[in-house]
Amino acid sequence: xxxxxxxxxxxxxxxxxxxxxxxxxxxxxxxxxxxxxxxxxxxxxxxxxxxxxxxxxxxxxxxxxxxxxxxxxxxxxxxxxxxxxxxxxxxxxxxxxxxxxxxxxxxxxxxxxxxxxxxxxxxxxxxxxxxxxxxxxxxxxxxxxxxxxxxxxxxxxxxxxxxxxxxxxxxxxxxxxxxxxxxxxxxxxxxxxxxxxxxxxxxxxxxxxxxxxxxxxxxxxxxxxxxxxxxxxxxxxxxxxxxxxxxxxxxxxxxxxxxxxxxxxxxxxxxxxxxxxxxxxxxxxxxxxxxxxxxxxxxxxxxxxxxxxxxxxxxxxxxxxxxxxxxxxxxxxxxxxxxxxx
Length: 342
Known about the structure:
Layout lengths: L6 H6 L9 H7 L6 H4 L11 H6 L28 E5 L2 E4 L27 H12 L6 E4 L9 H12 L6 E6 L1 H4 L6 H6 L6 E7 L8 H12 L4 E6 L8 H13 L3 E6 L14 H12 L9 E5 L6 E3 L12 E4 L5 E4 L2
Parallel strand pairs: 2-3, 3-4, 4-5, 5-6, 6-7, 7-8
Antiparallel strand pairs: 1-2, 8-9, 10-11
């Protein structure tokens, strides 16, 4: 099987039934489902399958709420030159290309990535690198997009080398779905491309359900970890995918066992047509409170919200300190309250 890239291909595989309402969903963003992910879908329970829900279009995507935004995290307002988002003083996003191995139906860049998306030309990439070179406060560059591991190893190595030559850039962080959804791309040549001489490279992998960590995926992650590349996990809290404590616990344990440190649990962004994925923040806080009593600190992600309008991420996990002005109280991981001396 090849990557499924159209409604017709999904219909042929029995993953969607013919439905004219899906046309709007297909028009709003590209479709891509890799063979590895398609093989994990439970065809007998498509309506509730957490893998299908992430990648297979739904007629619900045509329902757009007033608060939903085309640019929910404000990338455009923070983009001084094409391909750069500069939201925090010490770090920038660099988006060299706009294609991904799969297209997640909840993606906050869903209308800005895909076939036909604007990859950077050689001159535009040079201008983006010059922007970084000219600003000594930039300590970290985050490669995102699109998925930077969709670049050829040669082009990726050239980009890593160019960033490594900028002496004030100490950290190059790569955000990718590739090791999870298209693990065959993690070749020795690609791993070698991720090895600069001076700067540190960190790889953030996006994984939302333990079922995504199939044996072939674990092998790809092990290849990266064995090469000395630190791995961290990013997860989006999604209704119908991972919005219960048992599923999140299983996922975080599976990530740690694959040598991936859980980093962020993202509250879903206000992406157009994604209301069916969002859960109340109070529910997310309750899940985090429950995880605190079930998982070691090694397996705890930080629950974050990307403030609409380009104002950055903030932690929104549950509070453990009471608000009594006369006595400090602390709630433990199991819900009990204790006094602590002021």
